Amino acid sequence: MEFGFSGGDEVFRGEVRGWLRERLPYGGSRRGWERELGAGGWIGLGWGEDGYGNRSAGLTRQVVWAEEYVRSGAPARSGHIGEKLLAPTLLAHGSPEQKARFLPAVAAGDELWCQGYSEPGAGSDLAGVRTRAERTADGSYRITGQKIWTSLAHEADWCFVLARSDPGSARHHGLTFLLVPMDQPGRIEVRPIRQITGTSDFNEVHLDGARARAEHVVGAPGDGWRVAMSLLGFERGVSTLAQQIGFAEELASVVRTAEATGAAADPVVRDELVGLWAELRVMRWHALRTLGGTAGPGAPSAAKLLWAGWHQRLGELAVRVRGAAAGTGPADWSPSSPYELDAEQHLFLFSRADTVYGGSDQIQRTIIAERVLGLPRQPKGTQD
Fold first, then answer.
1. 10 is catalytic
2. Residues 280, 285, 286, 288, CA torsion sign
């Protein structure tokens, strides 16, 4: 039994493994899988005894579920944005009516969400959002602007949008947090962004007079920054430990490849592999130690810096141990059609973005410098 997990947690682990074993592999749609999870009571484990989630589970059991889910090879989640980001935000800031309307649908896997934060001119610097939300005569909001890097927007039923509702405001002031239905033909257009991996996980979202009802403002009008920052605090937590299980499987695959190609005979390669293994263990123990919320204000930024750089180095080593074969693709590749990548190629290419998305390394270092070390605030526009 690992430190931090009780005997009861291990019994729960057995229940999780049994449920996943019975239902995998799954051959249906991603939305169908979300409903399967909802019917099994696995969505909303951390929502507490409030009647909105499917079952109550403490922090360690949430970790058990997340880790075993990744280990099982279960399908990538479509509902995690609603479950892990929107739901905790509504529990903290939403009205009783908002909780009753949206949380049961998320718990059942019936409604999927995306996050309307980043814009072409406001990525890591979220306070620079320009999307406008204008109050109309009937009290609703008319939203105009563009969001980008919007994960799963092509599947989502709803989007939570941070928009500027006060025309004279700047930076963190005058922003409103709105719940916006995606099914608005002619008012919302979703354009997939093709990545270097050949897939399209992210999207541009163009809002041309999209409507949001007055009762779908979370918090108060103009108080969107506080709500948005609260949501970002939920972004890193239990999911970090599940992510590390995936990292461990990728590292094990790289080790197997190094052995198969003979690269493991190189002492430098062996030293790198051992170093990556040791760093991953340290990240895990650190995540377990800080799971209860005792970490300081710079802990999430420090964790992001650690795993992003680690994952990029793993991707670089993954293609290096493959040798020349890492630079070749399928024989039937053509520029006009999607291409297939093997695991090592995908790891290398996708990990290039790790130090950018979710807050770039520069932003994370600035947060640590200003909020932890107390260094003078850096003038805007001078980061390099």
1. no
2. positive
**CA-CA distances (angstroms) from residue 43 to 7, 47, 189, 301?**
23, 9, 29, 27
Indicate the Cα dihedral angle 246, 247, 251, 256, nearest 10°.
10
Confidence check: pLDDT of 310 > 70: yes
Average pLDDT over residues 375-383: 68
In this prediction the pTM is 0.84
**Pairing assessment for the beta strands 132-135 and 141-147 based on DSSP bridges:** antiparallel
HSE at residue 148, side-chain half, CA atoms within 13 A, is 13
Task: Say if residues 202 and 116 touch (Cβ distance below 8 Å).
Answer: no
Rounded Cα distance between 210 and 227, Å, is 21
Catalytic residue among 134, 204, 235, 316: 235
Average pLDDT, the chain: 87
| In contact, 280 and 251? CB cutoff 8 Å | yes
- Is the pLDDT assigned to residue 118 strictly greater than 60? yes
The structural domains of the chain, ordered by start, are 13-107 (1.10.540.10), 113-222 (2.40.110.10), 238-372 (1.20.140.10)
pLDDT (0 to 100) of residue 363: 83
